[in-house]
Description:
Elements: E1 19-21, H1 23-29, E2 32-37, H2 47-60, E3 69-73, H3 77-89, E4 92-98, H4 103-111, E5 115-119, H5 130-140, E6 144-146, H6 154-170, E7 177-180, H7 186-198, E8 203-209, H8 214-220, E9 250-254, H9 256-270, H10 276-292, E10 297-302, H11 316-321
Parallel strand pairs: 2-10, 3-4, 3-6, 4-5, 7-8, 7-10, 8-9
Antiparallel strand pairs: 1-2
Helix pairs in contact: 1-10, 2-3, 2-6, 6-7, 9-10
Amino acid sequence: MTNLPVYRDALDLIGNTPLVLLKGPSEAAGCEIWGKCEFANPGASVKDRAALWIIRDAEKRGELGPGGTVVEGTAGNTGIGIALVANALGYKTIIVMPDNQSKEKMDTLRALGAELVLVPPTKFADPNHFVHTSRRIAEETEGAVWANQFDNVANRRAHIEGTAPEIWDQMEGKVDGFTCAVGTGGTLAGVAMGLKAFDEKVTIALTDPYGAALYNYYAHGELKAEGTSVAEGIGQGRITANLEGAPIDTQFRMSDEEGLEWVARLLREEGLCLGLSSGINVAGAVALGKQLGAGSRIATILCDTGFRYLSSLYNAEWLESKKLPVFDWLR
């Protein structure tokens, strides 16, 4: 007899992802660093969770009915999750994305049958920002619902009800710290609220890339961005509805170079092919582990697969064009 799970519905494949002990990061931190393998979701990213909760929430509220359309503005992974969930439930998908995201994400969305609308990257204050564009399309499309992942708290509920209890159970209730970066804020806020419900003493840390404003907000009370990052899907300049009330205890800021060092090491030494947001999360987890000390147990999110970035992160010419270090084996 096998204890391996068997599902009668493909949507049940979302969540319940494995947790893996990361040897190199654990050694560097002097404690245990665990990675939640979100690339094991059907859409190969953590965003499948938010997609499922947002769509189910829209159904419950009667906003989304048979033959309906889900519209979203996204850096890519949420769109991929929404397209898969919508396909499984019989809905159409329209995805609005900045045109500077990876080619693999665009190709994937088209392959999944989503209608893809590309817009130039711009500041959130600009009415042509991908988020505002997606809202307008939803308003103008009959039978459409706007997923609104940034300010729809069904997003963080996916992590309060799903990711956090999974981490708690997998680590047998021995969790000293958790950290990850913020895009919408759903993952960090939701896991933080969920873990703190089990144990108030769990230390929650924001790990921010450069170019984002939250590090300064949590450190000094001011939304102020410094520097830049090529990481896709993370980095935020405002307090989203998902972030409101998030119990953040401390904060770190990590450079692309620090994140890429862990992307390279995890691939070369441990056989994990990840994106840059995962590398930045691991760098933050190592920093938190050093702060909490020997014997502590830290969890973080391995957000998505590196196979989504073959034309960028894993391309020597692209890395050189961004003045980033090229992995040895790509030279």
